[in-house]
Write a structure and sequence with these properties.
It is a single chain. By secondary structure, the protein is α/β, with parallel strands linked by helices. The protein folds into four domains: about 100 residues, DnaA, N-terminal domain (GMP Synthetase, Chain A, domain 3, 2-Layer Sandwich); about 150 residues, 3-Layer(aba) Sandwich (Rossmann fold); about 70 residues, Helicase, Ruva Protein, domain 3 (Orthogonal Bundle), CATH 1.10.8.60; about 90 residues, Chromosomal Replication Initiator Protein Dnaa, Chain: A (Orthogonal Bundle). It is built from 23 helices and eight strands. The strands form two sheets. The protein has a five-stranded parallel β-sheet with strand order 5-6-7-4-8, sandwiched between helices. A three-stranded mixed β-sheet has the order 1-2-3. Bound molecules: adenosine-5'-diphosphate and magnesium ion.
């Protein structure tokens, strides 16, 4: 989520001014270099709508009006934009590309290159409104919810069904016994924020229908901290506390951010207690379970864990397929099943990446008027696919699988055919096919110079065994996950 785009600390703006450089002029030069490099057509298609967001310390934010453009620019030009900017000003370490729109004023001032002081403070001034497009909800609640993150658009599968059920329950009946607090946890891009927004949307729908008045506050832990610090600075901590304590449902996303931020944790803890004692609902997300969030105060961890704790597991192949199907249908594009399967096999890390890959395919096909095929997919996504391949080698797969089934590593390439050796070898071949971009003959060679038809047979054998045998299938999934992590 892009909640924090508006935050520009005063100190960092000042830092930038003290440099010899001039932000808008640099930006204009970066743009024109880029234009020169990529050519007019590409520039107009993808880059023209870029605007300057904000500057914070050594990080500059560039805005694009839609998620779609952002993903595209990030993956195709992100490195180049950073490099060009560093060439202009070596104090810029990172260029963050986000969704948002700068106000007219800034766009003009960038072109006419006023002095950096004015530009930088303007950047700070426009930043808070930069997310209007993604945030505007037509329902006027203005708490920064993404329109697309609802229960209806959440695809349910084995890895997330429990979390989904808990979230629905809380949205239907906040503060029911046993469900307060609701603690959602899981790795990056697995749907925590999506579920939290879905709860908030549902609660607000409820409010709109007049059934029961429910006020919801949703914010990331980072934002919670910024607001808290700002309140201290403005001597308005009492209002801040009163406000938080007046809501019916408080949702804090990415709580792990509070680790090491002791004062903010303390404040959160008090708010938390006050709300729970008053029978209000708390929903929290984090990247780990309460007991694994070391660095969080013990009493806070204890209280967080004493309601309902639900985790979002790593995705399975089936879930990835369902998600891709849902997203393709939503975008009204036809993507051949083979391509969906290919993507679901190759991009296993998280749903955000999977979505990004699909978006790119769709954009490419729309832009060039070419249908999506396996060939275009491999071409368009070659960089992403390569990055994923690099994660695991055939040797690693052989080692892990041998270890898992307790056989010797040399048996991966030996001629022994005993079932207890042959089956793990087939599993390793299957995983090599799934997790690397090696061809069948290449894989065969690594397994004691076996023929590619042997590998093919292994792949289909393992697939069919997985369909018929749940515990075998779990075993293979587990191995895959271990290899990918
Ligand atoms: P997290 O907060 O866990 O890092 P997000 O909730 O931001 O992850 O999800 C990342 C992206 O994946 C979002 O665009 C979200 O809509 C999408 N997504 C995650 N889980 C699902 C799901 N089960 N069905 C559909 N989309 C999902
Ligand atoms: Mg999130």
């Amino acid at each position: 989520m892009e909640q924090e785009v508006g935050y520009v600390s005063d100190a960092s703006v000042t830092d930038y001014q003290h440099g010899t450089s001039d932000l808008p002029t640099e930006w204009a030069r970066v743009r024109s270099r880029l234009q020169g490099e990529v050519g007019e057509v590409e520039y107009r298609t993808w880059l023209r709508q870029m605007s300057l967001g904000s500057v914070e310390g050594d990080e500059v934010t560039v805005l694009l009006p839609t998620r779609f453009l952002r993903d595209w620019v990030r993956s195709h030009y992100g490195d180049r934009i950073s490099a060009l900017w560093q060439a202009e000003n070596n104090r810029v370490r990172r260029v963050d590309i986000r969704v948002g729109r700068a106000a007219e004023g800034l766009a003009t001032s960038v072109n006419s290159a006023p002095d950096s002081v004015a530009a930088a403070s303007q950047a700070a001034a426009v930043a808070p409104t930069a997310l209007t497009e993604e945030r505007s909800d037509g329902r006027g609640d203005g708490i920064g919810l993404d329109l697309r993150f609802t229960f209806e658009t959440f695809v349910v599968g084995k890895p997330n069904e429990f979390a989904f059920a808990c979230a629905s329950r809380v949205a239907d009946k906040p503060a029911s016994p046993g469900f307060n607090p609701l603690f959602l946890y899981g790795g990056v891009g697995l749907g925590k924020t999506h579920l939290m927004h879905a709860i908030a949307w549902k609660l607000q729908d409820w409010r709109r229908t007049g059934a029961a008045p429910v006020t919801v506050a949703y914010m990331s832990a980072e934002k919670f901290m910024y607001k808290f610090i700002a309140a201290i600075r403005n001597q308005s901590t009492i209002e801040f506390k009163d406000h938080l304590r007046s809501v019916d449902v408080l949702m804090i996303d990415d709580l792990q951010f509070l680790i090491g931020k002791d004062n903010t944790q303390e404040e959160f803890f008090h708010t938390f207690n006050a709300l729970v004692d008053a029978g209000k609902q708390i929903v929290v997300s984090a990247d780990k379970s309460p007991s694994d969030l070391s660095g969080l105060e013990d009493r806070l961890r204890t209280r967080l864990g004493c309601g309902m704790v639900a985790d979002l597991h790593a995705t399975t192949f089936e879930l990835r397929i369902s998600i891709l199907e849902a997203k393709a249908a939503k975008a009204s594009v036809s993507v051949p099943p083979r391509v969906l399967e290919f993507l679901a096999h190759k991009i296993t890390s998280n749903i955000r990446e999977l979505e990004g890959a699909l978006n790119r395919l769709v954009a490419h096909s729309a832009l060039f008027g070419r249908p999506i095929t396996l060939e275009t997919t491999q071409e368009v996504l070659h960089d992403i696919l390569r990055a994923h391949d690099r994660r695991v080698t055939i040797e690693e797969i052989q080692r892990k699988v041998a270890e898992h089934y307790n056989i010797r590593l040399t048996d991966m390439s030996s001629a022994r055919r005993a079932r207890n050796v042959a089956r793990p070898r087939q599993v390793a071949m299957f995983l090599a096919k799934q997790l690397t971009s090696r061809s069948l003959p290449e894989i065969g060679r690594k397994f004691g110079n076996r023929d590619h038809t042997t590998v093919m047979h292994a792949v289909s054998r393992v697939s069919s065994l997985m369909e018929g045998d749940a515990s075998f299938s779990e075993d293979v999934e587990l191995l895959r996950r271990m290899l990918e992590s």
